[in-house]
Amino acid sequence: MYRYDAIDKDFVADRAAEFREQVARRMAGEITEDQFKPIRLMNGLYLQLHAYMLRIAIPYGTLNSAKLRRLAHIARTYDKGYGHFTTRTNLQLHWIKLKDAPQILDELAEVGMHAMQTSGNCIRNVTADPYAGAAADELDDPRVWAELIRQWSTVHPEFSFLPRKFKIAVTAAAKDRTALRIYDIGLHLRHGREGEPGFEVRVGGGLGRTPHLSPTIREFLPARHLLSYLEAILRVYNRHGRRDNIWKARIKILVASLGAEEFARQVEEEWAKSNPARIDAPEAEVARIRASFAAQLETLPPRSEAVEALMAADPSFARFVKHNTHPHKQPGYAIVDVSLKVPGQTPGDMTDVQMETAADLAERYSQDEIRVNYTQNLILPHVKLDDLPEVWRALDAAGLATPNIDLVSDIIACPGLDYCALANARAIPVAQHIAERFADPARAEAVGELKIKISGCINACGHHHVGHIGILGVDKKGEEFYQITLGGSGEDDAALGSMLGPALPANKVAEAVEQMVEVYLRQRKEGERFLDTFRRTGVAPFKEAVYADAH
Amino acid sequence: MPTLIKAQGGGMVLANDAFTHVADDQDLPPGDVIISLARFQAEGDRLLSQGRSVGVRLEAGEEVEALAYDLPRISVVALAFPKFRDGRQYSNARLLRERYAYKGEVRAVGEVLREQAQHMLRCGIDAFEPADGSAPAHWEHATRRFRHVYQRAADDREPAFAERGV
Fold first, then answer.
1. Same fold, A135-293 and A412-550
2. Nearest Cα to A131, choosing from A1, A289, A303, A326?
3. Which residue, of A139, A154, A344, A360, has the greatest Cβ tally within 10 A?
4. Residues of A in contact with B86 (CB under 8 A)
5. To the nearest whole angstrom, how far is the Cα of A268 from the nearest Cα of chain B?
6. Residue A259 and residue A245: Cα distance in Å, rounded?
7. Which pLDDT tens digit goes with each residue over A40-72?
């Protein structure tokens, strides 16, 4: 993976030193909380319901063992011994003291980490395909481009005070695993006629109050012009995005109001007037970054006798292999998904000890790499098949081997009203109650792929609009209610969900999910997932089942 | 009279302000003035013909393109920051320097805090009226905080990829 050189190290150290001074000014009363707020937000520090929350950046979700061990150490020393991985592949610590924040940033800087731009109206942490560098279907390693964007966007002098936050995703595989179309900018790498790399550029996706899937504004942008073209998009947005209404300030509103074609025209016009040669990174820099991501993979037989034998002998291992491993581009290797979705526990939470276990396994068995997926799970991207039994045993012993990737209990949930100052309702207990009903792995397996996504408010951090089943918490006169949507999807078959019916009280949600699953199991045709059945039948049978009592 | 800090010789100095900010409903005093875009469009020719130096204040929603043909005659472009978090003027500043090669003074006015020092300087703003009581030393400190930068802007700092010289 990319390793910080002296310049990158100086940069995060300088930023940590700056923040230390700013906190000192705040604690000495030289600046007010109002003046301090944008400063702390730019460093990932939020004031939540119970304490400060620190959101630590994990650029394109890539970690190594040293970084993950440091996160474990920070969670143990300065928080309550656990952290929460988010849908933006960051780590949140929910019980931080302001006085400790500078020290934490110093300790992060030592391992090339920071909390820069994890909040505020700036370009946030860049997302890339979590299987990057390992996926059998990838054309290129998207992290090369994501790292280029990370550097370019860091403390950008023009684009640090945008109308609203700004998120970019990059994928370079046939299949999208980033939820690309819900991003402000989604970059999908393709090859041009001569085999040269370029990007399909999508702009204006987003969830929240007004969900939009992004339209394409350019079919093919030569990859070498990535940064200058991004700069043109950001400039049009910085100048013309709305600033009078926080709910209309995201770029999706600008793109929707101008129309994709007119927005594209403005970007092209701006780009044509710019001087790309000053902005674009030289080929040698791209090559330098690319070299840092090259994994050292061995030539191995495509089949492992050890794996075959254990699969035959142990159905739990067979189930793990079936659901939590994916084909690797290199024969003899597998991508291993580490589930942070134990039924009954908080989705995305991980203890310090579990982090250390995952770090040890990555160091020993996965080229020292760990990934964070936006689905709030981790990934060991380069595991030799022969090592799989050992890795599984170690994960299982640490409570990290729940065989439920993409199944009904692999639920995305935001922190909700248990932590978040913005939330209207709790999300975590809803996820727990649903997952508990499908805790039997055989039952979850029989239901198959079913993506449930829960948000505790309309800001949609839990991506409910694009859940096969989406659940949105709302407040009705002080009581928690939940609106259900069906048929959404964030990836290749991206779609926004449609409403099931009136909002349900908290104690009815898990039951409703179970009723809808029963409808699916009755109605499904050969090979259909929940989503396929829903798209064929429409909402009627599901609605009928959930609201039968009300008739 | 507000404090005026200017970037000079790689540092920051306290400067005397020869210009008077004049609101649209105020009578024009003698001497050098900074006036609104609308007033400049109405009265600019006359004022310039009197031999005064004239500066133009652009509000955050006003675009530098409106001044494109007048820039050679304008001594100061004052970019107004209505709020710390309103970043439109950073684009105006870069366009002034990089697209229109404007050589006069670009001044930040409004809610101008030392936290923005590096951003402003890098976008080509070279004069500042701070609203937080900060002194030149604070601005100098803030602009020297980062030993490296990651992108080219309107200043002459070279980005990390050029420093690496790969």
1. yes
2. A326
3. A154
4. 161, 243
5. 16
6. 19
7. 998 999 988 888 999 999 999 999 999 999 999
Domains delineated in chain B: 5-164 (3.20.20.70)
The string of DSSP codes covering A413-440 is: E--GGGT-SS-SS-SHHHHHHHHHHT-S
Phi (first) and psi of residue B150, to 5 degrees: -110, 5
Residues with Cβ within 8 Å of B135's Cβ and at least 6 positions away in sequence, in order, are: B3, B5, B14
Q: How many other CB atoms are there within 10 angstroms of residue B156's CB atom?
A: 7
Of B113, B119, B161, the CB nearest to A157: B119
Q: For CA atoms A455, A460, A461, A464, give the dihedral sign.
A: positive
Other Cβ atoms closer than 10 A to A325: 22
Question: Is there a contact between B151 and A162 if contact means CB atoms under 8 Å apart?
Answer: no
Task: Determine which of B59, B85, B95, B143 to mutate to test the interface with A (most A C-beta atoms within 10 Å).
Answer: B85
- For residue B78, the SS3 value is strand
The CATH class for the domain spanning A135-293 reads: alpha beta
Rounded Cα distance, A449 and A410, in Å: 9
- From 3.40.470.10, 1.10.1740.10, 3.30.413.10, 3.40.50.2300, which CATH number describes the A412-550 domain? 3.30.413.10
Best mutation target among A144, A161, A226, A286 (most B Cβ atoms within 10 Å) is A161
| B2 pLDDT tier (thresholds 50, 70, 90) | confident
Which tokens sit at A432? 């727990």
User: 3-state SS of A139-201?
Assistant: CCCHHHHHHHHHHHHCCCCCCCCCCCCECEEEECECCCCCCHHHCCEEEEEEECCCCCEEEEE
Mean pLDDT within A370-399: 98
Residues from B in contact with A at Cβ < 8 Å: 60, 63, 84-88, 90-91, 94, 98-99, 113, 115, 118-120, 122-123, 132, 145-153, 160-161, 163-164, 166
Q: Give the distance from residue B137's alpha carbon to the nearest chain A alpha carbon, in angstroms.
A: 15
For chain A, domain boundaries: 6-110, 135-293, 305-397, 412-550
- Whether A304 contacts A388, CB under 8 Å: yes
Give the closest of B60, B145, B148 to A7, CB-based: B148
Q: Which fold has domain A305-397?
A: Sulfite Reductase Hemoprotein; domain 2 (3.90.480)
Average per-residue pLDDT for chain A: 95
Q: How far is B99 from chain A (nearest CA, A)?
A: 8
CA distance A177 to chain B (A): 28
pTM of the predicted protein model: 0.95
Does A158 contact B84 at a Cβ distance shorter than 8 Å? no
The C-alpha R_g of chain B, in whole angstroms, comes to: 16
The tens digit of pLDDT for each residue in A419-461 reads: 888 999 999 999 999 999 999 999 999 999 999 999 999 999 9
C-alpha B67: how far from chain center: 14
Whether A524 and A495 have beta carbons less than 8 Å apart is answered as no
Least CA distance to B121: which residue of chain A? A157
**Helix (H) or strand (E) segment spanning residue A370:** strand A370-372
Contact A279 B151 (CB under 8 A): yes
Task: Give B107-125 as a DSSP string.
Answer: EEEES--GGGHHHHHHTT-
Length of chain B: 166
Identify the three-state secondary structure at position A495: strand
